[in-house]
């Protein structure tokens, strides 16, 4: 975890998983690098929110795998789900719902499936494509923490790979381009970016 800059109540907090995704951000806004995965994302954001003033919203920028053909470019996410939590079994065991889908500040956008597995095989890709067009490793965790803190969250993902065979190699090859596109989006859409 690394926090760059100072969090203030009048400006948003930018949250990304790794420095590779943040390499082209040129802003005075605070930037939190959480590390990859749900535990790192949730832990880092919760720790920062507990120890600093609440920001004027949170914007998660990052890469995502495309689970369906034809999905490219930058997407503002509408709903997040967890693909690696067995919500139905937990409900049957406890009578409570854990990990329900979360609707974000931009509800018209596509659904993002979040899980700790890097999806890089055709079988997993096809299984998840039924539930969502995009997949990442941090979105749901950040949405859960933001929701509990009463903060507005926007999730912006740029497609880096097709979440199939060879996705890890593709991510390494495209993350620089994705970072550039995310910085362009941020400059055009986030107040106080410049």
List the helices and strands and how they pair.
Elements: E1 2-4, E2 13-16, H1 19-22, E3 31-33, H2 38-51, E4 58-66, E5 74-76, E6 79-82, H3 87-94, E7 102-103, E8 111-114, H4 122-129, E9 134-136, H5 139-149, E10 153-161, H6 167-189
Parallel strand pairs: 2-3, 2-4, 4-10, 6-8, 8-9
Antiparallel strand pairs: 1-3, 4-9, 5-10, 6-7
Helix pairs in contact: 2-5
Question: Rough shape?
Answer: globular
Give the termini separation.
24 Å
Q: Decide which structural class fits the backbone.
A: alpha/beta
The biggest beta sheet is recorded as: 10 strands, mixed
By DSSP (H or I, 4+ residues per run), the number of helices equals: 6
Quote the average pLDDT.
95
Give start-end ranges of low-pLDDT stretches: none
How many β-strand runs? 10
| Assembly annotation | single chain
Summarize it.
With 194 residues, the protein is an alpha/beta fold.
How would you describe this protein?
With 194 residues, the protein is α/β, with parallel strands linked by helices. The chain has six helices and ten strands, in the order ββαβαβββαββαβαβα. The protein has helices spanning 19-22, 38-51, 87-94, 122-129, 139-149, 167-189, and strands spanning 2-4, 13-16, 31-33, 58-66, 74-76, 79-82, 102-103, 111-114, 134-136, 153-161. Strands 1, 2, 3, 4, 5, 6, 7, 8, 9 and 10 form a ten-stranded mixed sheet that branches. Strand 2 (13-16), helix 1 (19-22) and strand 3 (31-33) form a beta-alpha-beta unit. Helix 2 packs parallel to helix 5. The longest helix has 23 residues, at 167-189. The radius of gyration is 16 Å and the shape is globular. The mean pLDDT is 95.
């Amino acid at each position: 975890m690394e926090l760059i800059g100072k969090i203030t109540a009048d400006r948003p907090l930018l949250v990304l998983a790794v420095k590779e995704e943040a390499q082209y951000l040129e802003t005075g806004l605070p930037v939190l690098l959480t590390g990859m995965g749900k535990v790192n994302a949730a832990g880092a954001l919760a720790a920062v929110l507990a120890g600093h003033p609440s920001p004027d919203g949170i914007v998660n920028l990052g890469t995502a795998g495309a689970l369906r053909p034809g999905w490219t470019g930058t997407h503002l996410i509408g709903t997040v789900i967890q693909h690696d939590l067995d919500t139905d079994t937990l409900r049957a065991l406890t009578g409570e719902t854990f990990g329900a889908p979360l609707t974000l500040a931009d509800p018209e956008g596509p659904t993002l499936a979040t899980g700790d597995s890097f999806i890089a095989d055709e079988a997993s890709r096809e299984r998840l494509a039924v539930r969502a067009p995009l997949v990442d490793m941090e979105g749901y965790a950040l949405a859960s923490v933001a929701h509990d803190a009463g903060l507005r969250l926007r999730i912006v993902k740029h497609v880096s790979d097709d979440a199939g065979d060879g996705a890890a190699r593709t991510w390494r090859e495209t993350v620089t381009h994705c970072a550039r596109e995310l910085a362009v989006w941020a400059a055009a859409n986030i107040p106080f970016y410049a």
